[in-house]
Every structure is written in C-alpha cells, then in structure tokens.
Amino acid sequence: MKTEPKVSIHPDAGLLAASVAARLVTRLVDIQNERGTATVVLTGGTLGIGALRAVAESPALSAVDWSTVDFWWGDERFLPAGHQDRNVVQARTALLDQIGVSAERVHEFGASDSFSTEDEAAADYASRLQQAADKEATAGTPLADPRLPKFDILLLGVGPDAHIASLFPEMAGIRTKGQTVVGVRDAPKPPPERVSLTLEAINSAEEVWLGVAGQDKAGAVGLALAGAGAVQVPAAGARGRRKTLWLIDQEAASQLPGRLIDAGESDAG
Ligand SMILES: O=C1O[C@H](COP(=O)(O)O)[C@@H](O)[C@H](O)[C@H]1O
Hints:
The chain is of the alpha/beta class. The protein has helices at 13-35, 45-57, 87-94, 118-138, 172-175, 199-202, 218-225; strands at residues 5-10, 38-42, 69-73, 75-77, 153-157, 181-184, 194-197, 207-212, 243-249, 266-267. It has one domain (5-261): Rossmann fold. Helices cover 30% and strands 17% of the residues. The protein starts with a strand and ends with a strand. Ligand LXAUTJHC binds at residues 43-48, 75, 77, 87, 156-157, 159, 165-166, 189. Pathway: Carbohydrate degradation; pentose phosphate pathway; D-ribulose 5-phosphate from D-glucose 6-phosphate (oxidative stage): step 2/3. It is an enzyme of class 3 (hydrolase).
C-alpha cells in the first residue's frame, strides 16, 4: 500500500515548525486514544529539530502522555556518544530532556565509541528493531513489515540535494534492498559516516511527514513532487502506507508544479 503525497504550504519556516509541532501533538493524542501507545521516528536537520523545539514550547505539550511514546530515528551521524552533531543529542536538548520520556523507549543508534564501524551500528539497530517487532507481533499488533515495529509517524527532513535520512542521491544506501538499516560511508554532507533506515523501512510507516523550508530546497521539492525517481531524488521515494504529507514553506514551494500551489492541503498525485 502506498499513498499519494499531499502538500501543505506555510508562510515561513517558523510557522511551519509550529504547524508540524501542533500536528504531531494532535496526532499523538489521537493514536494514544486508539491504542494506548504511539511510535514516532524522528529526524535530524534544521526543521526536524526546530519542530521538536516547537513541541517543547507548545501549550498542548502535556496533552500527550510522553511516557508511552517510543522514539526511533530515521538516521544518525556516526559520531561519539554526546557529540553535538548527533541527531539524538540535538533531539534531547530540543525536547526529550524536558518531557517525561521513558529511557527504555528512546531507541538511539549506536555511537562510534561503542561500535567499530557504521555497518556494525546498523546491524545492531536492525536487530533492536527486529526485537521490538517480535514483541509487538506477540502482543497481536499487525505489522506492515515483520522486521519492524509499527511506526505511526515517521518524520523526514529533505536536503538541498533531495536526500532523506542519510540516503543520498545515486549512492549505495538509497539502492539498498532486503535490509532495514544501512551503514553509510562517503556521505556528501558531513560527517561522511552515518547510519540510516533504508527506503523500504521508511515506507513501512503508517504516516510519512516530510518537513522542508527554504529556497535552497525548492528544486528538490519540485523534482520530488513532479514524480522523479527515488535513486536520483530520494525524497520522491518516501511514501507512508496511510499518508504521505509534505509540510513546506513558501520558499520551498517556489518550484512546485503549478497545480499544487493552491492554498490548503492539496493532492500531489
Ligand atoms: O544530515 C541530515 O540532514 C537531513 C536534512 O537536514 P536539513 O538541515 O537540510 O534540514 C536530515 O533530515 C537528517 O536527519 C540529517 O542527518
């Protein structure tokens, strides 16, 4: 099952981050009402971390029971634990350290001072994902992919080159099939060593939300929503099973195909 993208355009990056935060809080409340827990896959990057900061500032913050939310990551920079460039460190500062999350529900990627290579950290993350999936399957949760727990919402940023998570255009990561996590070497954006969910893992999520702001991303957004191929334009390949939502600002929307520029949430199908 794959969904056609919907697009929602916001005046600027600040309002976009606030809107992503408000949607996230509302959706988490709904999911918790439906099934008691919720699972979010976080992203790093400007908007990903900005949206977490906006969640921390939201007046509705305490509407979510954060103690029953599981946090996974779409990718990580393969650096020592505590390094300021690690996505998990930035997420902790922006939000996680300020809310009552359960330590055992924060599933961060292994760091470079615990694993010798990014491939080892990738294998470790894949195995922890598998364990979580097995536990959910035993409890009767229907899974989209038996190797992965149910991802309710998966957040992605998009680079100016259209990369998502740490899947860069034309590189091995975006072409990887048959595994859920991949070690990345020679990434064109520093640091070169990273760990990432694969596209098939990303696309197992119920809802995929792509948050993008800025003129430098306009070309990537335009190509992705015009239907480019995922190997050349990784963002084009990200599709949730029930929803694919592009949350973008006006600058990032400036090269969208004309039919998508109308106000409101429009179909990009
Ligand atoms: O390095 C990364 O970049 C992307 C996009 O970041 P942005 O600053 O251009 O928004 C991000 O989604 C990813 O998680 C991160 O590791």
